[in-house]
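FW: tagging you since you asked about this chain on Friday. Here's the raw sequence from the shared folder, copied in full. Didn't touch anything.
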Amino acid sequence: MALSFFKWLFIPLIAVILTSAKPVSVHPFHVSVTEINHNAVEKSLEISCKIFTDDFERILAKNYNTKTDLINPINKNAMDTLVKKYLLSHLSIKVNGKAVTYSYLGFENENEAVYGYIEVPDITGVSKMEIVNNLMYDQFDDQVNIMHIIVGGKRKSNKLTYPEKNILFTF
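HL: got it, structure written out here
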C-alpha cells in the first residue's frame, strides 16, 4: 500500500521537476562578484567579474543560441566574443558623471567560476562612480551581485539584489 502511494506521489513530482521552466542549479544561490580597482599609477579601472561557470555557460548558450564551453573551449576566440558581448551589455559605469569606454581583456576559469577582465583607460581620479549591474538577471530572479570598489586604497562594498541594478559610490 505504502509503495503504491509513493509511486503516485513520486511520478508527478518528477514530472514537475522535468518540466519546470526555471533551470535547476547545482548550487543553492546565484551570485556574482564584481571588483573595480582604480589604479592611480596606470590611470585606469581594473575590473573583474566572477560568475559561477555553470550558470554563465547556460546564459551564454541561451542568449546567443550557441554551444558554450568555458572550461575547455574548442574555440577560445569564440568564447571570448560571447563573454565580452555579455559582460559589456550587462555592466555599465559612469565615473564622475561621464560614461566610460571599456577594453575587454579576456576571461579565465578557476575552480567553479569564470573571471572576466575589463579595463577602463584614462581615469585620473574618481570622486563618484555610478554602476548599472544586471549580470545574470536574465537567468535568475534570485540573483545577487556583490560590488567591491577600491579607490585610493579605500574599499567600499555593496550588493544588488534582483531587480535592483543601479548603485552609486562616492569617494
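FW: The CA atoms of residues 144 and 161 lie 5 Å apart.
HL: agreed, and Residues 30-170 form one domain.
FW: great, closing this out.
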